[in-house]
Every structure is written in structure tokens, then in C-alpha cells.
Amino acid sequence: MTQWPKNPTLFEINAWAWLEKLSREAGQRVTLDSVPDAELARIAAYGFDGVWLMGVWQRSVDGRRVAREHAGLQGEYRKALPDYTDADVVGSPYCIPDYRVDSALGGDVGLASLRQRLAGLGMRLMLDFVPNHFACDHPWIAEHPERLVQGGPDSLAREPVNYFDITVDGQWRIFAHGRDPYLDGWTDTVQIDYRSAAARRAMADMVLSIAERCDGARCDMAMLVTRDIFLRTWGGSFDPPRAEFWPAVATDLHARYPGFLLLAEVYWDLEWELQQHGFDYTYDKRLYDRLLEHDAMDVRLHLTAGLDYQQRLGRFTENHDEQRAATAFGLPRSLAAAALTYTLPGLRLFHEGQLDGWRVKLPVQLGRRPVEQTQPAAESFYRRLLTALRHPIFHDGDWQPLKPAAEWAGNPTHRHIVAHRWSLNGEHRLIFVNLSPERAQALTPIDILTLAGQDWRLDDVLNNASYVRRGDEMVGTGLYIDLPGYGYHLFEVHGA
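Now predict its structure.
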């Protein structure tokens, strides 16, 4: 298994919608083993270190029925795809009856072929693991009900949205739907009982079976199966009482597959805890939220956390769970957020369509997406950004936040600028981003003493501009920055 680089770039693709688009363009069915070479070359040209192929596992028949009949979801389908039909509703990729690749996508053989082709282009493959729940038609319903959370008639009567009943082999049983402590149950799922040692062992074996077929796993709502969160949701006690799921899994997984990458979807400020449980990277939802809230000072505070924490965060400005960045932020602001987010240490997650400035958030239950036009400003920006990120400095360099200060008394606009720098083997990159819609100025001391004593040319690779500045001033009083609203610089530093 090929080792992932430090601070990798990862590209999320909705597998079903992607193959549907390729099939429509080709005029024939395209599966994982017949994706055109030109399509893979197009993705590889951006320089991604890995592809997260979201939603390859078998879709549930029962889950598809629930998805088609759900009144609330039908509104979301119509909003994203006004001409949708039942045939477009393929079911949730997070309602899994079996960790086999869906035959509609090409099956396990097709996935193995695609993984080999991706590796030949220098890209690794990441797949989903959903630890908290299965589809309601999972075999454990009949074969291992003791591994699932069950209830009694009172549970069903009191919480009909969180429990369901079913007769299996002539026996009436009541099971819990998968959920988190703050939401009603997901009605197409059944909850796995992590209090059971047998259930934990079986789920650990499933992680290992997934690891045989890919190079990394994105673990859905990973915090739900930690002991504290699970007991908060379901009560009772673990067997044994202090048992945890993730530390043992991560230890075994990394021992058997040393290059395997574990990425946790995690919220509620539990990122550090999940990192200590063995995850290589954890979602940085807090940064995303602060960027949405226009709070540059909170962003600057966020970046003062220790590097041991920062470099294990998964950074993003969109993914399949969030609104499209061009919609949530507006396109100009989304590019400023991206200029900051993706030049930070940690895993850098990009989403299919983000590079084109797409605006429609596709419900995961749909297998077809609308046709959207590429926004030239987005495509040009991301091509420049991803080209810059291929340099070793953004993977192996030394990173430090910088401290923009007021350029003159009475001008507080420096508070809107977030800045940081990278250094490696005498090379330097300086990043400045204005997170406000108004023009902002700042003086920013650059803490690189070797810059003193000569002039330097600052090449802004995101804006195709160059400036010459005196090193003594950069190190001393600071580098003067004047940025328009949502403006940004990514400077390569060269001797003048």
C-alpha cells in the first residue's frame, strides 16, 4: 500500500452520479472498470493525492423504498433536480445492507480495476465506512439480532420515530433506528449496539475487509460509537465497562496496512479526542463554521492551536453534507475561504463540482445530478491553487501563523486579514486573505530572519502579479498588505 503524503489533497466524487453522467455522455453504460482514460487523466491533472469515491457500497432495497416515499426528501429532490423520477432515487449510500460494491456500479471487480488505474496515475482510493448503523434489511436482523439495539413495546409506543417492529422467522422483534443523541432516528437504518463486544469485533472485521480494497476510509459520524456518546444516546453499559471501539481498530488496522488513512467525520468539538483514538485526520467543521460566520478574529484564534492538532485536521469549504461553497459563501467569498483553508496544514478535501463553481447541493439519495455550467473564475482559481499545492513546501514544510497588525492608528481593518507562511529548504510561501467584503490593510512582520539584507520578489500565483519588497522592512516593521474585499495573495518568495 502506497503511503499518503503529509497534508494530502483528496477529491470527493459521488460515484453513482459520476457514472451516470459518464454513461449519458458516452451513450452507453459506464461502470467503475470502464471509466474513460481521459476522465481519470482529467482528475489526475489537478494533482490530487487521492480520490474519495463516495457511495460505492450496495444500496438497500428497503432504503430505496423509504427514500422514494419520504415526503420531506421529495421536496429536496425537486429542488435539486426538478425533473427527477423514481428511477433517479437510488437510495442513501449511508444505508448499507452489505459492504460489497453495488453491481449497478460494476461490483468488487470493477472497483479493483479502478483502484489499479488510479494508482497508475499516482492517486490513492478512499471509501466510506458507516460504523453507527446498517440498512433495515441487513442480514443481522435475522442472523444476529443481539448485535443490534432492541426495544420493547413501550419503546415503540413512546418513540415510534426511533423504533420499528418486524417479524423474522415467526418472531416479533422491535429494533432501534440509527440516530445521534440530538436527532430523531434515520428511518432507513437499524442501530448497531456497540455495548456488545461481539458487535464491536464484527464491525472491526468489516473495517479490515474494507482496507483490503482501498487505501483509506472516511468514517461517517465517527463520534457516535465512542463510549461516552453511545451511552448518552442509548444508556446501559459497555462490555467490558471501559471498552472503546476506535483505538483497538486503528491499532490493528495500521499494523496490518501501515499506509492506510483513517479520516473521521466528527463534530461537537470532539476532533482532538478522535485523533487520540487513532484517526489520522478529523473534520475541521469548526473552521468551516467560523468562515461562514464572517469571523476573521475567531479564525485567527482557531489557528493558534498546537501544530500537533492542526496538522491532523481535515479542511474543507464544501462536501456532500454542506451547501455548495459558491451558494453558501457566494463565489468571490468562497474563493477567499478556499485560499485560506487549503493552504493550511492538514488534509485538504475538495468536492466534485467545487472546482467548477457548481451551486446545486445534490441529495445523496439521487443517482443523477443536474447539468451545471463551469464558472470560469472558479475553474481558473482552483487550477492555480492546486498547481501551487503540488509543491513539497505545502506537504513537508514548516508552517506558522502570522500576525497582521494595524497599518496606521485608527484603522482596524487588519482584523479582517488572516495570514500564515510556509518554509522549506530556503523557500518560502506567504498567504494573506481578507475575509471581509471591505478593503483591508495590515502590516505583517514576517518571522524569517534570512529575508533581511536584500530585496525580494513576491510572485502572487493566484493573481498573476509580482511585487518587489525590502527584506529588512518585511522582517522589521512588516510587509504592507492592501487587499480588496475577499482578496487574497499566495506569494512565492524569490530573490529580486
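The longest helix spans residues 197-211.
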